[in-house]
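The methods section describes the discrete structure representation at length, but only in general terms. An entry of this sort, consisting of the sequence and the corresponding backbone structure tokens, reads as follows.
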Amino acid sequence: MKEFDYRRAPDVLGAVTLLDADPDARYLAGGTNLVDLMKSGVERPTRLVDVRQLPLDRVESTPDGGLRVGATVTNSDLAAHPDIRSRCPMLTQAVLAGASGQLRNMATVGGNLLQRTRCAYFTDTTKPCNKRDPGSGCPALGGEHRNHAILGASESCVAVHPSDMAVALAALDAVVHYETVDGRGELPLDQLYPSVDGTPDRETALPAGALITAVSLPPLPVAARSRYRKVRERASYAFAIGSVAAALDIRDGIVRDARLAFGAVASRPWRARTAERILIGAPATAETYAAAAEAELEAARPLRHNGYKVPLMRNLTVAVLSELDEEAAR
């Protein structure tokens, strides 16, 4: 591991000022991803700016009836918060599906959104990787890609985003709030992760040196009946090979509102807007759910060894929506 300087930020302005003065510095909160990458040599910061003690650790109601989640709220505290559990259960389920209890106690909301891919070529510095070294190539294209992307990938990169939490936040229309030395800003989560086409090393649309301060959730009545389902290769702690975050509002046998996002199939949480358009206004039936999933997955471009994800995601989507349908009927 490269030697580095360590500073504890006194406040948000102090944190962004420290990073602005050193482009090779990194923010440190829980460190559950960053420290691992430092050990492997993928990340080589000159300075760590510790933001864990900043007053960004609360979940609060907003005047419009939504919720605001501070960036240093731990994953464990987020999952256990009564407002999160009652108003958007898919978010609680997504957080609990990710990592182990020990990691959830350390990991933070802001850090979770910024965690980097677990592609084996990315984390092995002896291999080329366009994310680490733009223009060096993507060996996953012809190599090991069983768990890689089937949607929104490119010749530059076929890795997937690893976050479970971000998938639920995508379905919930979350907005990411940040601060820089130039002031405050915000980005819809849908716009936080840019396309990997040509610039896979640019992993977020945040300005240089930006510190995520909070994530806000708009008032979304449909979210009260929601679910997150994750498929992984073993029952214990493991990253998803496919996941679905879904919410349904069904009245008189018709889908009145729907939210749907896929995980582990693209370089970012995949908001399934094509499927949503088919669902809303249609009969709440297994046939409708299958048609919506099929329409969304028409854009899939699987590689040689990950074509299994197409039927997996179709079946998983139908199963989750059917469960929500049955819940609504009770």
In short: The first helix runs from residue 12 to 20. Residues 138 and 176 are 30 Å apart (CA to CA). The mean pLDDT is 96. The chain has 13 helices and twelve strands.
